[in-house]
Structures are given as C-alpha cells and as structure tokens.
Backbone:
C-alpha cells in the first residue's frame, strides 16, 4: 500500500467519533483497535462471548454480547456514540437455534432467517444490512488498519518455485469457479491435483484433516509439495469476512507437509505479520501475496 493509499484510509476512518469493533476470536480485532488508537480515535469493543479473547478484550473499553443480541448491540453502540462499526475476528457459525435473540433480533427476524439460507458471505451481508438500516456505517478493518493487508510479494526470503506457481494458478482458478456458490475461500493444490476445498470446517480444520491423512498414509502427495491458496469470493463485500492468514495458518500448512501459502495481496488480512513471516521462515515455507491471476513481483 502506498503512502497516498494510507492517507486516504486515514481520512475514511476518522470522523472524530468513537469506533465500535464487533470482535470475534484471534488477534486481528486488537490490531484494528491499536491502529485506531494510534490515530487518536477512541475504540469500544463489543466482544462476542465464547469467541473473543477475554484477556485482550480487558485492555479496552468493552461490552460482552451474545450472538443474536442485535438490539442490545445497537443500543450499546448508540450509547457509546459510535457511528462507525468494524466487524472483525473469527466466529464459529451458529445455527438459528443457537442464537440468543433479543427484541432487536426479532424485529429483523425475516431478514436474519433469509440470511441464514446461504453461505457465510450471504449471512454476513444480511447482518451488515441490519446495522446499516439502523444508521451505522460499516468500515472495512483494513480501512482502519492498512498494515494488516497482505502486501504483494514474498513475506521473507523463501519464494515459490515453478511447480508452486502452477499450483497457485490452479488454486485461484478453482476459487473463482466455486466463488458464486459461496463455499469457502481456500483450497490446497499439489502437483496440479486438488487435495482439499475449504467448506464449513474452516481453513485450520481443513489443514488438520490433510495432516491426519498424511499421518495415516492416505495422502500420497510428496512432503514439501502443495500450496494453500486463499482468495476472496468474486463480488464479495470486502468490508466483511476477507480471507486471513497468521502464525496458526503457517503451523497448519507445515503440519500438512505443504510448501507454502499464497493469498491475494490487498484482499487478505494478516494476523501478526512479523510473527507470521518468522514462523514461515522457521518452517521453511513461503508466504506470498499474489495478484488475483497469480502474478507476483
């Protein structure tokens, strides 16, 4: 990202009012919170129970909420003076019967139920619409914290080889093909063979499955071959649910015996970039940001 881009992001995310961050698991919510604080903006976390890191949440002004407490969430944001809201962090997708609906959720029940009838992007778009209809402005996490976007090129000194480049191109083509079905944002390809496609289990569990198959002798791809490829879905609202990688992703790729990770630069979030690069170097893996058609510097 250029200095000009960063300046534009700063202008988009600063209007003098507090920033509400509806946060799930992982470290990304706190990277966003720190970036906002650095720019002089007050942040208020609305932390999801059984998802957000309680110890990290305690360092910020915060409220704990349950999935489904839509009305309470809107009231808290208004009481805190928040106009702008960021949704960030991992959450295990619930069923409608696992929610704690309050009156605000019941008022929006037809929309929420329709939103559940589809993939994650469809569900999140429906939730975003509820907040926008209530008068809030949704910001992308990377508008607030541009540094969490994956840059183009390799993180570190290890770069993909010709065989990896072919696997990356095939993985991106596959993700473009399945994107309209709102399935997942990740695939694993080795020697032009598709080993796994992310579905409801998520990236970490997909990689854990491959590691288990390798341990049981059911995965016949040679160790050190194969790439985890991640990309946003075509037409996806990039304010919510961009693909992400981090040290845990690197550990999973290493356990699965892969050669590296490739994701679309400028459209992938990186949790703890320095730690991610260090973990990749220690594991002998590449982590690379590519264009949507697989090119890199």
Residues:
């Amino acid at each position: 990202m250029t200095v000009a881009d960063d300046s534009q992001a700063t202008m988009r995310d600063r209007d003098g009012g507090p920033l509400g961050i509806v946060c799930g698991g992982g470290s990304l919510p706190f990277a966003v919170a720190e970036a906002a604080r650095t720019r002089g903006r007050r942040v208020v976390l609305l932390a999801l129970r059984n998802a957000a890191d309680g110890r990290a949440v305690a360092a910020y002004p915060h409220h704990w909420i349950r999935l489904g407490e839509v009305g309470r969430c809107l009231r808290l944001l208004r009481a805190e003076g928040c106009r702008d809201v960021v949704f960030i962090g991992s959450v295990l997708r619930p069923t409608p019967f696992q929610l704690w609906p309050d009156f605000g959720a019941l008022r929006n029940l037809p929309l929420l139920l329709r939103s559940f009838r589809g993939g994650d992007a469809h569900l999140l778009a429906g939730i975003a619409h509820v907040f926008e209809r209530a008068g809030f402005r949704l910001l992308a996490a990377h508008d607030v914290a541009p540094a969490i976007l994956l840059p183009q090129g390799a993180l570190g000194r290890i770069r993909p080889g010709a065989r990896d480049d072919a696997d990356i191109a095939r993985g991106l083509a596959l993700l473009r093909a399945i994107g309209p079905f709102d399935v997942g944002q990740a695939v694993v390809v080795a020697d032009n063979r598709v080993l796994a496609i992310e579905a409801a289990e998520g990236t970490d569990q997909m990689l854990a499955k491959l590691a288990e198959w390798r341990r049981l002798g059911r995965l016949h791809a040679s160790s050190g071959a194969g790439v985890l490829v991640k990309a946003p879905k075509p037409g996806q609202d990039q304010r919510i649910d961009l693909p992400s990688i981090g040290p845990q992703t690197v550990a999973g790729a290493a356990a699965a015996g892969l050669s590296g990770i490739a994701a679309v630069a400028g459209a992938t979030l990186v949790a703890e970039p320095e730690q991610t690069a260090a973990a990749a170097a220690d594991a002998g893996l590449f982590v690379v940001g590519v264009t949507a058609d697989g090119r890199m510097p």
Residues 1-14 have pLDDT under 50 and may be disordered.
